[in-house]
Every structure is written in C-alpha cells, then in structure tokens.
Inverse folding.
C-alpha cells in the first residue's frame, strides 16, 4: 500500500475521532478557555457557537453509519499496521540472516587459511568466540549448528564446508535451503564422532 494512501486513511480516521472526543473537549474548552470573561475566544466565537458546533459533532458521533464507518476504518488501519509491522520484521530478519551468511563465509575463509598452516583445532583458538557467536545467532533462527564434537575431528574441513555452504545460501536469501543444508550436515558429524 502506498505511503500517501496510508497517510490519507490515517487522516480520515483522525477526523472521525473528533466527534467521539468532542464531549471531553467541550468540557475542557468551557472550563478553561471560555470561562475567561472578555477573553479573545469568548469575544470571537462565543459560547453559543461552541455549544452549537459541539452538539452537532456529538450528534454526528451518535449516528449508526458513523459508528460503522469508525469501526470499519479502525479495522482497516489495524490490519494495515499489522501487515506493515510484519513486513518490517521479515525484512529485518532477512537482513540479519544475510549478515549471518557473510559471517559464516568469512569464518570459513579464516579457518581454511589457518588449517593449511598449523594444527587443528589449536590454530583457531582465537576464532572460537566468533564461531560460538555465529552458532548462537544461527540457533536463534532455528538453524542446526555443530556441537563441540566438531573440534574433535581430524581436520577443519567439515567446519569450513559447513560455514561455506550454509553461509552462501544465507547470503543469497535462500533461507529454507540454508536450513535444509544445515540439517544435512548433522548425520555426517554424528557418524564421525561415533567412530
């Protein structure tokens, strides 16, 4: 829905609220603004004009069609607002998942570079906090992540490939495929750690 249409609907809804709040507004105006004798508001408008306008707006607010219009428009605006919030939430989640994918790919590259130069898993001690953070973020989105057994594997290939393949799918916005891909790694880790 376009921004202008939403603004228009909220504007109409705001105008429809006036007859509903008029009794409260009228009491406040009479008590504070029109009670001052010789005041500008009393001189220009007068109590009779304010009472007439107020009575007409209150009568409008009592009309059956007006109440229907108010309820209908309120329902539309609540629906529009919920849809907007849902879309924003989905966009934020997608952005966070893409960012997680980039983090996965970066970790894959870092681990791959280190795996060639020294002993696994001692060569990634300084990366463990980043790996743990990535795992926690992935769990938050329902992705399967390896447990501590991954550090008992003979080399870093499993972790590198897991981060690379799942990270690529996340970066590409293929979240369902990334979830399936992550789960597909679980049996491999379970079989390797059992032997």
């Amino acid at each position: 829905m376009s921004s202008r249409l939403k603004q228009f609907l909220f504007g109409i809804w705001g105008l429809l609220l006036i007859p509903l709040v008029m009794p409260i507004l009228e009491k406040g105006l009479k008590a504070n603004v029109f009670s001052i004798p010789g005041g500008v508001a009393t001189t220009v408008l007068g109590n009779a004009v304010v009472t007439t306008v107020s009575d007409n707006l209150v009568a409008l607010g009592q009309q059956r069609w007006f109440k229907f219009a108010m309820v209908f428009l309120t329902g539309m605006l609540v629906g529009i607002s919920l849809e907007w919030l849902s879309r924003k939430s989905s966009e934020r989640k997608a952005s966070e998942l893409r960012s997680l994918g980039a983090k996965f790919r970066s970790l894959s590259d870092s681990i791959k570079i280190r795996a060639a130069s020294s002993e696994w898993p001692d060569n990634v001690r300084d990366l463990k906090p980043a790996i743990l953070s990535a795992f926690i973020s992935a769990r938050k989105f329902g992705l399967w992540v390896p447990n501590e057994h991954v550090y008992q594997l003979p080399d870093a290939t499993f972790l590198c490939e897991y981060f690379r393949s799942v990270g690529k799918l996340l970066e590409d916005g293929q979240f369902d495929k990334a979830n399936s891909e992550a789960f597909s790694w679980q049996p491999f880790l379970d079989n390797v750690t059992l032997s």
